[in-house]
Design goal:
Distance between the termini: 7 Å
Structural class: alpha+beta
Order of helices and strands: EEEH
Strand content: 5-15%
Radius of gyration: 11 Å
Number of helices: 1
Largest sheet: 3 strands, antiparallel
Length: about 60
């Protein structure tokens, strides 16, 4: 599980497209998986574009 929770990020959005339901405005893409998972798989690093909605980084529960 990634440490970054896309649902708590201001760049995350729902596309309502069944083939690519999740999007990231900061990274500029849509995907079937949460953008933070795609970023982790692509770079081996947690998402570097994460910006919390409320000023705190929230982690995904284990």
């Amino acid at each position: 599980m990634p440490k970054v929770n896309c649902l708590a990020c201001r760049h995350f959005f729902i596309t309502y497209r069944p083939d690519h339901p999740y999007g990231c405005r900061a990274l500029g893409f849509k995907s079937k998986e949460l953008p933070s998972r795609v970023a982790l798989a692509s770079s081996g690093l947690d998402c570097q574009a994460f910006t919390p909605k409320d000023g705190k980084q929230k982690e995904t529960p284990s």
